[in-house]
Structure formats: C-alpha cells, structure tokens
Amino acid sequence: MLVSGKEILLHADQNKYAVGAFNINNMEIIQAIVGAADELRSPVILQASQGAIKYAGIEYITALGKLVADKYDIPVALHLDHGTDFEEIMKCIRYGFSSVMIDASKYPLEENIERTKEIVKIAHSVGVSVEAELGKIGGTEDQIVVSEAEATFTDPKEAKIFVEETGIDSLAIAVGTAHGVYKGEPKLDFDRIEEINKIIDIPLVLHGSSGVPNDSLRKAVERGICKINIDTDIRATFATAVGDFIRANPEEIDPRKILTPARDAMKEIVKKKIEVFGSVNQAWK
Hints:
The protein is α/β, with parallel strands linked by helices and 285 residues long. The protein has helices at residues 5-15, 27-39, 50-56, 58-71, 86-95, 109-125, 156-166, 190-199, 214-222, 232-248, 255-277; strands at residues 19-23, 44-49, 76-83, 99-102, 129-134, 138-141, 144-146, 170-173, 178-179, 204-206, 225-230. Strands 1-2-3-4-5-8-10-11 form an eight-stranded parallel barrel, surrounded by ten helices. Strands 7-6-9 form a three-stranded mixed β-sheet, with no helix packed on it. The protein is globular.
C-alpha cells in the first residue's frame, strides 16, 4: 500500500526503529527491494534521484512504484531523493510521489528555509510529505558533489530553527557520513544525533549510509535516526553479480539470465540492511 513518508517515519519514530530508503533505477532493483521488505514484513521507502528519473523516465518510475505498492501488503512510500530543482519536485508531486526531498542545503540558512517553506506549502496541500537537509553531506550523489572541504556538520540550534520555520516532516542531518564509496571507515557523531533528536520533534534521516558499519547504524537508530538511505551498496552488489555471471557465462546473451542473479543478490543485501535497521515485522495493515 502506498503511504506518505511521514506516516512511515512517524511509526518508525514511535516504535524505535529505522526504515530503509533504497534508491531505485530499474525494475530489477525495485523487485529486489520490495521482495525483501515483503518477506521480512517491513515498511520500505523506494526513492528515486533526479538522475534515476532522467534515466528511466518519471512515467516508468512512478508506474513501477505504484504497482509494487498495490501488489504488496506492506507500507511503501515513493520518495524523491535530493530534489534540487523546483520543476522536478513539482513533476514528482503531480505524478503521484507520496514524499519529496527538497535539498537546498548548499544555500545559507535563511535561503534554505525560504526555498524549503515554498515546497512544504505546496506538498502538504496535496498530502505529500517533505524531507529537507541541513548541513552539507560530503561525496557525490548523481549530479550533487560536495567536497570534504565544503562538508559541514548540522548545527543543533540551527536545526531547531529550521524545523520550526519550515514545517518539514523529516530532517536529513550531516553527522559524519558521505555519499558514494568510503576510503576509510566513517566516524559518526552519535552525540550530535542525540542532541538534535532531543530538541526537534520530527524524524531524523541519515544519508550516505552504504559502507557504514552495522554497529554504527544500530547506534544511530538508538539515538534517533528513523530513515537510513542506501544506494551505493545496491549498485556495487548489482555490478559484482552481473560481472561474475558474465565472466562465468561469456556466451550468454539473455538479459533475463544475466540479471536474475543480480536481482537475487540485491534482495539479500536489502534483507540484511532491514534486519540491521530493526524494521522486521513492523509492517502494519
């Protein structure tokens, strides 16, 4: 069933677990994610970046997302990840996304607030939830690149102001993670997560979580994280499985046979993440 991101994350917040938000690009990835969530009876967020929408087409992404939401008896949200373009965000709302992210984190606080407020007003009028970001998370996410020098942690006092001024439903915070592949082990600022969680009353989001040790993810959930974004782990699993199959079967040309092992492998990695996040058997009807 298709639900808003707000509904999923409030349930997670109240029941002290986190929901996996997994990036989607094609049918096999969507099948792997929702198949895993259904087996473990977990709520799940399917999120598409602007790059994924450009690649697959918003009609395909939306249709596939709504299809699996109707097919499976678990809560599913269809979410725009890192929306930086006003028209793109409006398009996602018009096509039926149940949640959108406005990422204006590159701007000064006041401009971030104003840009975010505009999206909140429109989205909330049609029942769509809104995630925003404060602080700058390093790394690369499609066309969004933030260098180590530019990355900044979220200031708790600014977070309180930002949430009160914008009326957003969830907040992505910068606490030591980064988008893309890590060169070393990331060090999360758990005290910062806990401090922000104490002074704001909406669910917190952790971006750039692929490659973060499971123990660190569990600690982040304990301190208030309710949504954990996973993309790179799925991409890496897909690429490895396809490469292994082609090397073992160099004459094979049937895409169904090539992609089936990749879909199975992605499903297993999603299941492992769901178990770490604590959302097993948290689906409601």
